[in-house]
């Protein structure tokens, strides 16, 4: 698969747009992993290499930096935020319905129906006009990123679809190298806010949750990037994140602590009981070791698990084709 030239830090979006036009024959992404033996195809694919490379590049970019630090907010980033604000507004316009079941509220399906109708138009507002042909392909990842409308659930596979959505925007040159901090600190952080609102409003079920043995009911990536933010912090050690006072004082600066704060709000009882994996992680001596361990765990528990990856979709930008040696 031909690469775009979005890695040239000095290039303007127009340059990159022109460079990427001949590179892709855009298509609607589809499922390719239908049986457990297909997992080998995924791990050898260009998509896997691109996806994990994207996650690790951003992991490096946010190392030691606060959410409140200064960074560039480009026009594309602002347009992405506008899209997420639209999704948020739709939640307010689609209140939960009265129903006997305490599980997933059916109003989510109405909300999701709006996204299904509008996704392509929303993506078209983000990308340069010259790349309009990529909108149907990229819109699929946005639709996959918010949960399942049949089961009214949400999990790490949906989160991965949002990361794939952002990765595609980088591949076509809509997002640039100097957008990296804004991608995490503004766009992904806003995405998390909207997803938490969805989860609370419509009582969404965790998708494929391992319960107390999973890292978290809904998210994984903010723990990876959030632990990278805390590497070499002068005073905050992993053991501190189980202290509610510390979390409440510092969560505005660190994504990891934001996640812990949300867990504390949503769950009752001793932390060691409802979030056993995180409790164990609090005993790791350094954030660097936490970060490395979480990356290994993400590969093993999410990217190498058939129940998660069977839903991943492949197109021209994230291709199932084997990576070229």
Per DSSP, the total helix count is 15
What is the typical, i.e. mean, pLDDT?
A: 90
Rg calculated over all Cα atoms: 19 Å
N-to-C terminal Cα separation, in Å? 12 Å
Strand content: under 5%
Can you summarize the main beta sheet? Answer: 2 strands, antiparallel
Characteristic terms for this protein:
mainly alpha; 325 residues; two-stranded parallel sheet; disordered N terminus; two-stranded antiparallel sheet
Q: Would you mind describing this structure in some detail?
A:
This protein has 325 residues and is an all-alpha fold. 54% of the residues lie in helices and 2% in strands. Strands 1-4 form a two-stranded antiparallel sheet. α9 crosses α11. The longest helix has 22 residues. The chain is globular and about 50 Å long. The termini are close together. The N terminus is likely disordered.
Quick structural summary:
The protein is mainly alpha-helical and 325 residues long.
Any chance you could write out the topology, listing elements then pairs?
Layout: H1 13-20, E1 30-31, H2 39-43, H3 46-61, H4 75-93, H5 107-126, H6 135-144, E2 153-154, H7 156-171, H8 180-201, E3 205-206, H9 221-229, H10 244-250, H11 255-266, H12 271-274, H13 276-281, H14 287-303, H15 306-309, E4 313-314
Parallel strand pairs: 2-3
Antiparallel strand pairs: 1-4
